[in-house]
Design a protein that fits this description.
single chain; 59 residues; alpha+beta; 3-stranded antiparallel beta sheet; 2 helices; 3 strands; flat
Length: 59
């Protein structure tokens, strides 16, 4: 069996439970963070910053 193809075809919906440093962050397919909206905003801002820096480095 080719495990790489399983991993590459899987997505977030295929992950049931996630533990980070001994703390459960996702259980039964649901994220457990209380402030997901704020975290999503921070992630979007971080992604925009990274793209801006990448594009300016290409010039």
């Amino acid at each position: 069996m080719h495990f790489a193809s399983i991993v590459l075809q899987a997505g977030p919906a295929n992950v049931d439970t996630v533990m980070v440093d001994g703390v459960v962050r996702k259980r039964a397919g649901r994220l457990l963070a209380a402030d997901l909206d704020r975290r999503a905003d921070e992630l979007a801002a971080s992604g925009a910053r990274i793209l801006t820096e990448f594009r300016s480095a290409q010039s």
